[in-house]
Amino acid sequence: MKNKTKQIKYYVGEDLHKKKTKIENTIDNLKIKYNKVEEQLNLMFDKHKDGFSKRIQRKIVKLSTNLTKLDVTIKRNIANLDKLNNGELEKLSPIENFKHWFSHVEYRKQTMIWGFIFIIPWVLGMAILFIPSVIETLFWSFSNANLTPDGMQTSFVGIENFKYLFTEYVIDGNNVFSVSLLTFIEGLIIDLPIIIIFSILIAVLLNKKFRGHTVIKAIFFVPVIYNLAVITETLTGTFGQHFAETMQGDITFVNQITGFFMQIGIGDSLLEIVLGAVDRIFTIVNLSGIQILIFVAAIQSIPNHLYEAAEIEGATKYEIFWKITIPMITPMILTAAVYTVVDSFTRSPITRFLQTSVANGNYGLAAAISISYFVINLVIVGIVFMLFKGKVFYHDEK
User: Fold this and answer.
1) Model pTM score
2) What is the dihedral of CA 323, 324, 328, 333, to 10 degrees?
3) How far apart are CA 260 and CA 128, in angstroms?
4) ∠ CA 341-117-374 to the nearest 5 degrees?
5) In sequence order, what DSSP letters do the residues of 17-73 get, joined into one string?
6) Are strands 175-176 and 170-171 parallel, antiparallel or unpaired?
7) Alpha-helical segments (H) within 48-176
8) What's 344-379 look like in SS3?
9) Cα–Cα distance measured from residue 332 to residue 330, given in angstroms and rounded to the nearest whole number
10) Integer Cα distance of 57 and 63 in angstroms
């Protein structure tokens, strides 16, 4: 096979004149910007001769960085102009021009650009599919919507659907929407920290190297593979009954421990939360599979030299865990918390009320339930985000 050599093209004729004018104009504009930034920097130094506050220091650093970038860009354009005058400047295609420009963009901005590129499909999906559906659902939630042979007929009723939903809507004889929603949110508030803490502890244990650790990891991820209903049926069936009988002695021991803690003054509320978590240990394990996987990946991505440096300095395992492991995985703690909230809503009683209203042909009420579902989910995720805001450690920014 013959090696294909690239044919290099140079600027000639009218293209040469246009390119030269463009580079010269660029250099002139960059010099004007450079002079302005330099003037601002000198004024700031003259104004704050006695000392600089942290805010002024940040401004000076920012201006100095901009000055350096402008200087580098001016020199690069002057070099290109010299090459152009000597007939040595290569004429690049639009794609090659973009590659050349992108290679000179700072790394942080490159990551931002790639981030925007990767979310373009999501943005298109939101704009084309999700947002129009949300707007239509929002309109239906304020209307009495009925499906007819001619299509959906709506009549505006204001907030009547929401008033009925939160004050009077009952299914199955005794399931009140507002009560079921409140009970679910209370359970979520208790389950969220339990699932996160349990997932972190299990991830730390699974990250240790021991004989059979791969098999143990697989066992913990079984609930992720199998359906929760299958596991629940197994545990409540013959196997579950046999398992409960074998654990009867342990249950007696737990009751004795509970009585002891109550006697020494441990609050009933705290005991109720802890015992409730123990009672639902299989459910918690089932709901923690993805979170454990997230934390295992996060822990394994922590640079080993941080642990080595801490051990050389004489840090204990306890100090290493709280000073290195936890801060380094805080971004994944936020991710796992948001995932847990969203995943919990997929099993919330709201879906049962929604299915009933759709089955009864009450589409306006169903739309109101959907909007309520979305808003409540969004509010809880927002609260979780605000609680973690400022506590999340990003290694690249420190």
Assistant:
1) 0.64
2) -60
3) 61
4) 25
5) HHHHHHHHHHHHHHHHHHHHHHHHHHHHHHHT-S---HHHHHHHHHHHHHHHHHHHH
6) antiparallel
7) 54-85, 94-103, 107-125, 131-141, 160-167
8) HHCCCCHHHHHHHHHHCCCHHHHHHHHHHHHHHHHH
9) 5
10) 10
Between the CA atoms of 275, 280, 286 and 292, what dihedral angle is there, to the nearest 10 degrees? 0
Tell me how far apart the alpha carbons of residues 387 and 34 are, in angstroms, rounded to a whole number. Answer: 42
CATH code for the structural domain at 172-348: 1.10.3720.10
Where along the chain do its domains lie? 13-104, 172-348
Element spanning 152, H or E: strand 151-156
Q: What does the pLDDT profile of the chain (398 residues) look like in tens digits?
A: 455 556 667 777 777 788 888 888 888 998 898 898 888 888 888 777 777 777 888 888 888 888 888 888 888 888 888 888 888 777 777 888 788 778 877 788 888 888 899 999 999 998 998 889 888 888 888 888 877 777 777 888 888 888 888 888 888 777 788 888 888 888 888 888 888 988 898 888 888 777 776 777 676 666 555 555 555 555 555 555 555 555 544 555 555 555 655 555 555 555 555 555 556 666 777 778 788 888 988 898 888 888 888 889 888 888 888 888 888 888 888 889 989 888 888 878 888 888 888 888 888 888 888 888 888 888 988 888 888 877 777 665 54
154 closest CA partner among 174, 137, 175: 137
Other Cβ atoms less than 10 A from the Cβ of 81: the count is: 17
Amino acid at 117: I
Q: Which two tokens stand for residue 11?
A: 């600027």
Q: CA-to-CA distance for 299 and 280, rounded, in angstroms?
A: 27
Among 396, 218, 389, smallest CA distance to 301 is for: 396
Dist. CA 320–CA 302, nearest whole Å: 12
Q: Which residue has the tokens 């934390």?
A: 295
**Tokens (6 digits) for 142:** 């304020």
- Among candidates 346, 341, 327, 296, which has minimal Cα distance to 394? 327
